[in-house]
Design a protein that fits this description.
There is one protein chain. The chain is mainly α. Helix content is about 45%, strand content about 0%. It is built from 8 helices and no strands.
């Protein structure tokens, strides 16, 4: 099997049809329109128009111009505009797919992962009251301890310190000692 075939097989194995279906249902719920029947998930998203419409629904005005006609570069520009808009929305740069992942269908699993990252980010925007995708991100659990509690904690020796009620590992020897042989 050629290397290219192996790489394609590995990328195809990363795809999760259930996650793709969940992401598609979320996009349809946000946009209020169904995907065209019979078309594959990645084919609907390929030109970037649906993605731009999606981010514009989440945050109006994120993508000012959506290219609906023109050459390949205009369609790829849609994908780039979507990527910039979701980064501005709060999606971490590391979660954003590369343009070729979608345009050339190289890594659709990464595209779905980006959609889930965008879906999680919607939880952090109180102005959004539509459907959500993925689990809710955890929130900070800040604790304020009094000065008395902090001082009491300084007298406790934790188990990580290597001591537990006087019992230590000093004097223990596991296996043979290290021998350094000079001149050999």
């Amino acid at each position: 099997m050629s290397l290219e075939r192996q790489v394609r097989a590995k990328l195809a194995s990363k795809r999760n049809p259930e996650q793709e279906k969940e992401a598609q249902e979320w996009i349809e719920g946000v946009l209020g329109a169904k995907f065209p029947p019979g078309e594959q998930f990645e084919d609907v998203l390929k030109d970037g128009t649906v993605l731009c419409q999606l981010i514009n629904k989440l945050k109006p005005g994120s993508v000012s111009k959506i290219n609906t006609s023109g050459g390949q570069f205009k369609m790829m520009e849609n994908i780039t505009n979507f990527q910039s808009a979701i980064k501005a929305y709060g999606v971490p740069d590391i979660d954003v797919f590369q343009t070729v992942d979608l345009w050339e269908k190289k890594d659709i699993a990464q595209v779905v992962s980006t959609l889930f990252a965008l879906g999680r980010e919607t939880y952090r925007h109180p102005e959004w009251n539509g459907p959500y995708l993925g689990p809710k991100p955890s929130e900070e659990c800040k604790r304020d301890f009094s000065e008395e509690v902090l001082k009491a904690g300084q007298t406790v020796i934790g188990l990580q310190a290597g001591s537990n009620k006087g019992a230590t590992q000093s004097g223990q020897n596991m296996g043979a000692g290290r021998k350094i042989l000079l001149g050999k």
